[in-house]
Design a protein that fits this description.
By secondary structure, the protein is an alpha+beta fold. It is about 30% helix and about 40% strand. The strands form three sheets. Strands 1, 8, 9, 10, 11, 12, 20 and 21 form an eight-stranded antiparallel β-sheet that branches. Strands 13, 14, 15, 16, 17, 18 and 19 form a seven-stranded antiparallel β-sheet that branches.
């Protein structure tokens, strides 16, 4: 995915402390509903229902009659001779359930199965049908190795106490008795079939789902000017009923060489709760800062004030006239204002609000021919920053620039109090610099993760240390 900038905003505070705390650059949190939906779709892709339709009930009962009981096994063998066929006649997988384990460190996946089976015997003219309910159960856990942590599915089997069989229709006493016997022989057979026939499909579906989740992480790479940013999985975690994918980030140049890693930081990351949201992507503040820096590098602007902003040119001349009337008269129609951003903007978060601070040097030249400026000002500027969304795109916009502090660096028209030019300076920055910076920031970022998870739009919010992306409210 490419764009002028993206919610995959990244950066790194230099680890100058003796011990830097390992903190993920971002965290993708997924609710049970997302896992259920993804796993349900993967079971469909693997034709899990067709597997249920093809369960070899009859052959399995013949191979292991009555769970290995020799006396009952003989009776099963006797009855099997008179069963013409025994097949699943309908099958459904009901809504999956994903719940936290008792210790909150694992997730219990329950796959409810609803089936009907029928059998026929020479003594019975009609097909005898049975209703069968059972449940497959497995555990999602985090396992670690030398290569790192990963999500795995383990202990797939039939859920204890979930098996129920009943006749769909009653017949004569003799037929009902035979049907009851067949159902009693099916009781040990179905759990065996769930484990041998369905569990491999559930495990394969989970592996596909896990790869999809990793693809969501890998699908975040974005072009930031000439740099490219990509997230990788640092480690997964399970917190109560939420799966968290802890991400690291790397910045590479146009040749693919990694220029920065963003996995270690002294900055903590406070994780907000999902609060009913299906997912959230939480991006660390210093990561956001680095993206803004990549998008808005230090630069120099030259503005012919009389041609571009004539009203401001008149006001600037009036302001200088208060300081030095003779100098003001020297301002010609080709007067130039030179704006140099000394450093990249720094994003500051506080109580859910964002502000961007910049250091700027502003020089005024009387005409385009002169080389020595009238004066040079050093400005500590700031502007309010707003994150908002357009559909599934995330946008950053900077508002009016304020000149918080202003310093006279040098002057060719004599010493003066730079505060006299504070207002006009702020207006020139807002009129000339702000559109240039917003042009690089506000074209929008396609948040591919939103549609990949089945949502049309995203919304964003700010905490004290992060940017949080969630689905937009309908």
């Amino acid at each position: 995915m490419a764009g002028p900038w993206t919610f995959a905003l990244c950066g790194l505070l230099a680890a100058t402390l003796v011990r830097a705390t390992l903190s993920p650059a971002a965290v993708l949190s997924l609710s049970p509903e997302v896992i259920e939906g993804k796993l349900t779709q993967k079971l469909k892709d693997h034709d899990a229902v067709d597997i249920l339709w093809r369960l070899p009930l009859l052959s399995t009962m013949r191979e292991k009659p009555a769970g290995g009981n020799p006396i009952l096994g003989s009776l099963v063998t006797f009855l099997m001779k008179y069963i013409i066929w025994l097949k699943v006649t309908s099958a459904n997988i009901l809504q999956l359930q994903i719940q936290p384990s008792a210790d909150g460190q694992e997730l219990v996946v329950k796959v409810p199965l609803d089936m009907a089976a029928g059998f026929n015997m020479p003594l019975v003219k009609s097909i005898v049908e049975m209703h069968m309910e059972t449940e497959a159960q497995a555990i999602i856990r985090v396992e670690t190795s030398e290569r790192g942590g990963t999500l795995v599915l383990r202990n797939c089997s039939n859920s204890p106490g979930s098996l129920r069989l009943s006749l769909l229709r009653r017949f004569s006493f003799l037929v009902n008795s035979l049907a009851d016997k067949v159902m009693s022989f099916l009781l040990p057979t179905l759990p065996t079939l769930v484990k041998s026939q369905l569990c491999p499909v559930i495990e394969a579906a989970f592996e596909d789902m896990r790869e999809d989740l990793l693809h969501l992480v890998r699908a975040v790479p974005v072009s930031l000017s000439s740099d490219h940013l990509q997230f990788d999985l640092l480690s997964p975690a399970i917190k109560h009923d939420v799966i968290q994918l802890h991400l690291q980030a790397k910045l590479s140049d146009s040749q693919g060489k990694v220029t920065k890693w963003f996995n270690e930081s002294a900055v903590s990351l406070t994780m907000p709760t999902l609060e009913g949201e299906p997912f959230s992507l939480t991006i660390r503040q210093d990561v956001v800062n680095a993206a803004v820096a990549a998008l808005v590098p230090p630069e120099e602007l030259m503005v012919l004030l009389d041609y571009v902003l004539p009203e401001l040119a008149l006001r600037l001349k009036s302001s200088i006239k208060v300081i030095n009337e003779k100098a003001a008269d020297q301002l010609g129609p080709t007067q130039i204002v030179k704006i140099v951003t000394q450093e990249t903007p720094e994003l500051l978060l506080d109580q859910g609000r964002a502000k961007v601070a910049q250091l700027i040097v502003l020089e005024v030249f009387a005409t385009s021919e002169v080389r020595r400026p009238f004066f040079t000002l050093g400005i500590e500027a700031s502007s309010e920053a707003q994150f908002y969304t357009k559909g599934d795109q995330l946008v950053l916009n900077l508002n009016e620039i304020s000149a918080n502090r202003i310093h006279l660096m040098n002057s060719g028209i004599g010493l003066f109090d730079p505060e006299l030019l504070k207002d006009i300076t702020a207006e020139m920055l807002t009129s000339a610099l702000l559109p240039n910076e917003n042009g690089k920031l506000s074209s929008g970022i396609p948040v591919s993760m939103v549609k990949a998870l089945g949502f049309e739009a995203a919304s964003c919010s700010l905490t004290n240390d992060a940017l949080v992306v969630t689905p937009a409210s309908s």
